[in-house]
Amino acid sequence: MPAIIYTDNWHLFTGSRHMPSPGNREPGIARRTVSATKRPFDIDEAMSRIREAVRPFPPAALFQLAEEGFDSPFEVLVACMISIRTFDEVTVPTARRFFSRARTARDVAHLTPAEINQLILTTTFHEPKARQIHAIARRLAADYDGELPCDERLLRSLPGVGPKCANLVLGIACGIPRIAVDVHVHRVTNRWGYVRTRTPEQTMTALEEKLPKRYWVEINRLLVPFGKHVCAGRAPRCSVCVVLDMCQQVGVTTHR
């Protein structure tokens, strides 16, 4: 049986603003029938469609903060550490509050771990994060003139910094193409069937081998809001998905 796609972004499928006749669609919702056989996954087409589809939603937290001017390597790193196991809706105001008090490594080094903890109290694991942020700031102030170099090896040597945060710093603040894989990027790309991996680390390696480099930074910016609002972990909204005709829906047992 053919699949039915309901979407407010009809032009993303057809390349046209022309809508089906009113008799063939529900009010305010475009409907398109596609073959039950999926077309080959076209990453260029997928990224173009998703770029338009997520415009109504806030970008991923670190990209949003960078657009607000918190875009130095140290600020992106601190914001990323704040974001770990924390919703974007909490990360963004918490990071703003923190940066209203201290924005540079030297400024943060003058705070105590207890003061940092109070500033990020709304986040998950705030106490260990506070200690790690303080230790990083002190090291940068002592050894690097208060600046965080765009150096992957150094980033990965800092306490609490894993590949995701290191790559986000390099990609957002340093302009160095790196793929940052979080739960959304991991889930969505596997659900598409674009990669077949078990862990975010495996997904990062697979994407580095397959994803065109021009999308290495952008994929996190796009798939975080896409994964939150459309391709959700439970009951994804396949009925409004702009890449349903290409997505293999791997592991999807129920959807909206």
UniProtKB/TrEMBL annotation:
One of its GO terms (molecular function) is lyase activity. Signal peptide: none annotated. Belongs to the Nth/MutY family. GO terms for biological process: base-excision repair, AP site formation; nucleotide-excision repair. The keyword Transcription regulation does not apply. Residues 82-229 form the HhH-GPD domain. It holds the Pfam family HhH-GPD. CDD domains: ENDO3c. Keywords: DNA damage, DNA repair, Endonuclease, Glycosidase, Hydrolase, Lyase, Nuclease. This is Endonuclease III. The keyword Disulfide bond does not apply.
